[in-house]
Amino acid sequence: MRERLFVGGEWVEPERGHYEVVDPATEEVVGLAPEASPRQVEEAASAAREALGAWSATRPEERAAVLDRAADLIARDAEAHTRLARAESGATTGTARAMQVGVAVARFRRYARGALEPVEEPLPPQVAGAGPMGPASVLGAVAVRRPVGVVTCVTSYNNPWANPAGKIAPALAMGNTVVVKPAPQDPLSVYAMARALREAGVPAGVVNVVTGSGADVGEAAVGSRHVDMVSFTGSTAVGRRIGEVCGREVKRQLLELGGKGAALVFDDADLDAAVRGIGTTFSFYSGQICTAPTRVLVQRGVHDRLVEKLTAHLRRMTVGDPSAPGTVVGPVISAAHRDRVEAYVELGRAEGARVIRHGSSGVDGKGFYVAPALLTGCGNGMRVVREEIFGPVVVVVPFDGEEEGVALANDSDYGLIDYVWSGDVARAFRVAGLLRAGGVGVNTVGRNMEAPFGGFKKSGVGRDVGSYALHAYSELQAVVWPG
User: Fold this and answer.
1) What pTM does this model have?
2) Where is the Aldehyde dehydrogenase domain (predicted)?
């Protein structure tokens, strides 16, 4: 598979050649991704600007029809897309099928409906007395959501279908045009998505895809004078740099950044349910997910029992080929990231944690595998407790009372999603209200896909998902008239 850039509705040869996309499970080449030049990125942004006027003027029903057709086309080729997603991201077959491709289909369908949601909000009339502005009158008003304009969508490597779809679909539904810059590790799925959108009838220039193995492509896509907004999912460090550029140019930004989710487990909790939830850190994307409950804060009275149950759960984690039916934990995205995660495990050991591991660190000597790890005996000052590891690693910190547990949870630079397990639902909801996080799961790690998603503190800026995404990709305009 030798891809080309998608710019202005055409497939364009990259000016700087191609780079290899590697299968994390086998270390074999999946395909060749195009290396865009900064000039070609600017051409993509210019094409998006040129297409904006016509696309934003289309009837909502037309935009909805295009998004619905795109969902149909992605679903039609779901098995091929699943194989591609598994090969370039290392996700297990079940995850690639349901949580990557399946969620992408669902998001295009959701925002096909979203295109039809009302954009006007009537406001109460206001009586204006006579004065320098004119005679007395009654003024009517309406708040209307308008497209932001050209949106650069910079996506993360851990979900090459759902994450781009979650940006592209609501942006298009609101009448914006987009420049998509996928993560360099797994961009091939986004080109497959672009083909579906083109076949679905997206006009030339409305969707553009540019890629590169270095930082300059993303920098060009963020910094272009044609771009009005940047939507980014990824690390807090990169988010800071994007925020600096957006701040200088006063561009809108939607940033979903890192996480170090606290899972507070109280002594009256259903420990088996808590373990099932916490255990998703080991298995779901091999821990490469910002919403994972990686930081377990457990009340001291049940600490030993919870560690015992987590250890037993860990032993059931089958590490291996993500295409094999019984595999639970696949590889991480790259050799560099494998080494980074392993370095954190060793750092935890050096900081005094007890390290419990299970599973192979490789399959036949190939692949970027990390044996899942449970670190106990941790304190909140340890780097492994405070920093995002982004791998199949869970740290455990004991606490005594509720106040201490909440304080430990909030003593973090991050605040994306926290979790509370307690048999006392009233207490769980009370504690949820004290947590400085954009979301709180009460006795679950499940997500409601209409609920707002985003973070407090260094976990991001803004909210998306459901109708909140439509708000994120729109500007509010006030229209006032004499009644």
Assistant:
1) 0.96
2) 11-479
